[in-house]
Amino acid sequence: MSDVAVGAQSGHGDPEQRPEHPGASASGARSAEDGGQASGEGRDSGDGQGARARGHRSFWKELPLLVGIALLLALLIKTFLVQAFSIPSDSMQDTLQRGDRVLVDKLTPWFGGEPERGEVVVFHDPGGWLDGEPTPEPNVLQQFLSFIGLMPSSEEKDLIKRTIAVGGDTVECKAGGPVKVNGKALDEPYIYPGNTPCDDAPFGPLKVPEGKIWVMGDHRQNSRDSRYHMEDANKGFVPVDKVVGRAVVVAWPIDRWSTLPVPDTFDQTGLGAAAASVAPGAVAVAGALPLVIRRRRRLTDRRTAG
Question: Model confidence over 154-187: pLDDT tens digits?
């Protein structure tokens, strides 16, 4: 009977074996478990390093793409939106100083906008204005930066002046007198101190052709502007399609930062006389048209009734 009882307790025919040290098995289990955790931590650590390595490699792979996108955006901005230009002379003092960097709005002309009176504009040489002027030799880096618009171009032959009159205007300036646009004298506080409006080269009256502008520098006695090119093919006028855009901000140096607004003198009443002279006729026709239509209706109704 005792043999059966022993067998029933063990579940096997062999006698039951007990560990000599009860804590050994538990300790062994804990060691194995700790070892498993340690090896798992090792695997996690390895995976983290691998992920960081892959992330590091992916950044360097993406860097050329990011640089390419940035350069493309800079090129698009220069072509269609804003471009930097450097002031190479004193012809626009004191509004602009030699060495100033200005930002030019190139977007407006793309939508058909034309220069307005009083705006400072950059334009391509309309025909021999810069003949004989030295052109600096930029290095490769300067050429690249100017190509993408991060630096002003030193090779393009561009000029910067103030728009005084636009297509349809009559402009003149007599010795000792002010510049007049459509008979209205301009108050020009932007003229360089000590200068006269035009005593060095009086002109006019001249009718500005459609699609062209008349420009003058703010430093009148140091500016080879429209007055000095009246014998060329454009008779001193600048074709609108030669205008790059309007200078809107002096961006550099920082202590010279300022905007370039249109002076108040160009907002005076009656300055746009050429356009205003057409307006009354147009208003009269618009006002008379309803009366003519009503009269014709009445005559038609009477004939129908008769």
Answer: 556 789 999 999 999 999 999 999 999 999 999 9
Residues catalogued as catalytic: 91, 161
Which residues neighbour 22 within 8 Å (Cβ) at sequence distance 6 or greater?
none
Q: Which amino acid is at 68?
A: G
45-102 pLDDT, tens per residue? Answer: 445 555 555 555 577 777 777 766 666 665 555 555 678 888 989 999 999 999 999 9
Q: What is the CA radius of gyration of the chain?
A: 41
Peptide bond into 241 cis (omega under 30): no
Dist. CA 214–CA 158, nearest whole Å: 16
Coil, strand, or helix at residue 202?
Answer: coil
Residue type, 293: I
- Which long-range CB contacts under 8 A does 258-265 form with residues at least 24 apart? 260/95, 260/102, 260/120, 262/116, 262/117, 262/118, 262/119, 263/118, 263/188, 263/189, 263/190, 265/118, 265/186, 265/187, 265/188
C-alpha–C-alpha distance, residues 226 and 299, integer Å: 59
**The amino acid at 129:** W
Q: Rounded to two decimals, what is the model's pTM?
A: 0.63
**235, two tokens:** 């008779």
CA–CA separation, 102 and 252 (whole Å): 7
CA distance 167 to 6: 122
Token couple for 17: 């074996």
- Measured in whole angstroms, the distance separating CA 35 from the mean position of its chain's CA atoms is 64
Q: CA 264 → CA 136, 190, 195, distances in Å?
A: 37, 11, 20
Residues 260/234, Cβ–Cβ less than 8 Å: no
